[in-house]
Design brief:
oxidoreductase; Jelly Rolls; UPF0676 protein; alpha+beta; eight-stranded mixed sheet; 14 strands; DIOX_N; iron; four-stranded antiparallel sheet
């Protein structure tokens, strides 16, 4: 179902105030991707990546072409969506037991309330494969959401993939050709709402299972990245998108681009009593792409070139993602009493405090 844009007005969304608490912030690099097409821009950006990527897989992207108004519109949509009655939202439940994140996930309640305190709505790629029912608020703004998602894929994700390929000294379209928007695969925009909760740890330390994760400006502190110095807060800047490298890109890059460990903790006292909205885009390889490491002259010189047989190299992006989603579902749903470690093909997931 692909309705046209609605004329319905959305309430204006204003960001919460920044915290006044003195926090230890991570020192992150910023890639200005507007320089990519400038003379020498590609080389400069690739050099910048090579200088920081072994220290931290979190970084900022500027020059991304999305306005503050466009981003706040998406937050306004998220607000309206989560204000719907629970019985309405649960009409669109995601089948996480089958490793499918499309649709709605409610926050845990009852005996499972300690598992998580967030609710989510995941909007997949706007391709025939993913046509599905949505709440009216989504259908009313379908074209706007689609344009926003397409901009992230085409104008932010693909340029970054070109920069990474250039840094690895491989065909610039190597990663791009494994992320074709029209090909089968689950890439999605997420609206997320953390509800106030007294526990300190809201999302245990983990890596993401996709290619790159894009986190849009949200001043409520709580996101932390694991650095060599320990856990550090990630400051959200109004003109920047926070980006982190995830599992699939680590596998495809032969382990050179590291999937970054991060977590979400209870916000500082001056922000802890209000919900925390998140606007996130998860980019993922095409479903049939095997997660085998690229052959790279840079990796050869560094002695990091990996063999391609067995293990995760024989697993597709879809198999990897579904296995991780289903494993997490079993724990959240109480079907597994302890967190399972093996994901698939002998690859194990680590957990962090």
């Amino acid at each position: 179902m692909a309705p046209t844009t609605s004329s319905k007005e959305l309430p204006d969304y204003r960001y919460p105030k920044q915290t006044n608490e003195k926090l230890e912030w991570a020192d992150l690099e910023a890639l200005d991707i507007s320089k990519l097409e400038q003379p020498g821009g590609k080389e400069a950006l690739a050099t910048q990546v090579l200088n920081f990527i072994d220290k931290n897989g979190f970084f900022y992207v500027t020059g991304h072409g999305l306005s503050d108004e466009q981003i706040r519109r998406q937050y306004a949509l998220a607000n309206e969506l989560f204000e719907l009655p629970l019985e309405e939202k649960t009409k669109y439940l995601a089948n996480t037991a089958a490793g499918d994140f499309r649709g709605y996930k409610a926050k845990a309640t009852g005996k499972l309330a300690g598992k998580d305190n967030d609710e989510r709505y995941n909007i997949p790629k706007f391709t025939p494969e993913h046509e599905r029912p949505h709440p009216e608020i989504i259908l009313d703004h379908y074209k706007e959401i689609r344009d926003f998602s397409l901009h992230i894929h085409n104008k932010i994700l693909l340029p970054l993939l070109k920069i990474f390929a250039f840094a690895l000294e491989i065909d610039e379209d190597y990663f791009v050709n494994r992320h074709r928007y029209d090909a089968e695969g689950l890439e999605y925009l997420r609206y997320m709402k953390y509800h106030p909760d007294p526990k300190d740890l809201w999302a245990i330390g983990h890596t993401d299972y996709n290619t790159l994760t894009f986190l849009f400006h949200q001043p409520v502190a709580g996101l932390q990245v694991q650095t060599k110095e320990g856990w550090r807060y990630v400051r959200s800047k109004e003109d920047s998108i926070i980006v982190n490298v995830a599992d699939a890109l680590e596998f495809l890059s032969g382990g050179y681009l590291k999937s970054t460990v991060h977590r979400v903790i209870r916000p500082p006292p001056d922000q802890a009593e209000k919900p925390r909205l998140s606007l996130i885009y998860f980019a993922r390889p095409e479903a049939a792409i095997k997660l085998e490491p690229v052959k790279s002259p840079l990796l050869e010189r560094l002695g990091l070139q990996k063999e391609t047989e067995g293990g995760v190299a024989s697993v597709t992006a879809e198999e990897w993602a579904r296995a991780r989603i289903a494993k997490d579902h079993r724990f959240r749903a109480g079907l597994a009493k302890t967190r399972e470690t093996e994901i698939i093909a002998g690859v194990h997931q680590k957990y962090y405090d």
